[in-house]
Design goal:
Number of helices: 11
Strand order of the largest sheet: 2-3-6-4-7-8-9-10
Shape: globular
Distance between the termini: 73 Å
Length: 285
């Protein structure tokens, strides 16, 4: 009897230790930045400008302004393409790992602004949920004030964790269109899916609650997800879509969490092109 009690006590203490570690290191599990830039848009055949953005709380963000093909400060200093995509990337690496995706939007004739969150790449600071929201605000200010781009000509794009700052921004600012790819309902839902043996919902300090925000978003939204996504279950992405306000559209693609946009490139690009043509060129307010 005593040995059983000791065993049970050991199990309880062990489980408690695991729970404690999960709570203490949850930011490290969610935010996985890399400081090393592996490539630049030049390596992918795209002209670009290095940009530095200042946040309201004193951080400096590094990013790239990638003009649409044929547009550059050298050749056409006062000219931009009709529309600009603001790219919020996922939780790991940095902007240099998103060049294949940027190339696709470049092919669609869009300017692209992609910026590393605080603590990622060459950006200063440490990542946090509220910090990423401040980063999103700095990106919007840069596009609308520094570059003078009309909000109606901006497409906000969020992939995976990037859906968090994308939906946060879309609630506050009226862009021309919003694209949410492989996004989750909220962080606790994803954590509970992967760590069902832990009380994730009680432990989570980060939320990124897309499901709660999308009903407030009036911007036309394209939702994209794959049933083959093993990181963010398809059902979570579908729930975000179902909660969203009209006008909205859903595209089911194939492939995994990190390569669906490549595996389904033809349908992916065709649908995005049609969606943007309909909503950005419609003249609707």
């Amino acid at each position: 009897m005593r040995s059983m009690t000791i065993t049970l006590l050991g199990l309880v203490l062990g489980y408690g230790a695991i729970v404690g570690l999960a709570f203490a290191f949850q930011d490290q599990l969610l935010f996985q930045p890399s400081n090393r830039l592996l490539a630049t848009p030049d390596d992918a055949g795209m002209d670009h400008e290095d940009v530095r953005l200042n946040t309201e709380d004193g951080e400096t963000l590094h990013g790239w302004w990638i003009p649409a093909a044929g547009v550059s400060r050298e050749t056409s200093p006062d000219t931009t393409a009709a529309h600009t995509l603001l790219f919020f990337h996922g939780n790991a690496g940095n902007i240099s790992g998103r060049l294949e995706s940027v190339q696709q939007f470049h092919q669609l004739g869009l300017n692209v602004l992609i910026v590393d969150y605080r603590g990622y790449g060459q950006s200063t600071g440490s990542p946090s949920e509220q910090g990423l929201y401040r980063d999103a605000a700095a990106c919007w200010e840069y596009l609308t004030e520094d570059r003078g781009i009309a909000p109606a000509d901006i497409v906000v794009f969020g992939r995976s964790m990037g859906g968090g700052p994308a939906t946060w921004l879309a609630v506050r600012e009226r862009a021309g269109a919003l694209i949410l790819e492989s996004v989750f309902t909220n962080v606790p839902d994803v954590g509970a899916h992967h760590y069902s043996f832990l009380p994730v919902r009680a432990l989570a300090t980060n939320q990124f609650d897309n499901e709660a925000r999308v009903p407030e978003i009036e911007t036309p939204t394209l939702h994209i997800h794959s049933r083959g996504d093993r990181v963010v279950p398809f059902e979570l992405g579908r729930r975000v879509y179902e909660a969203a306000a009209e006008p909205k559209q859903f595209l089911e693609i194939e492939g995994g969490h990190n390569d669906g946009f490549l595996v389904s490139a033809d349908a992916y690009l065709r649908t995005i092109d049609q969606f943007l043509s309909e909503h950005l060129n419609s003249g609707e307010e």
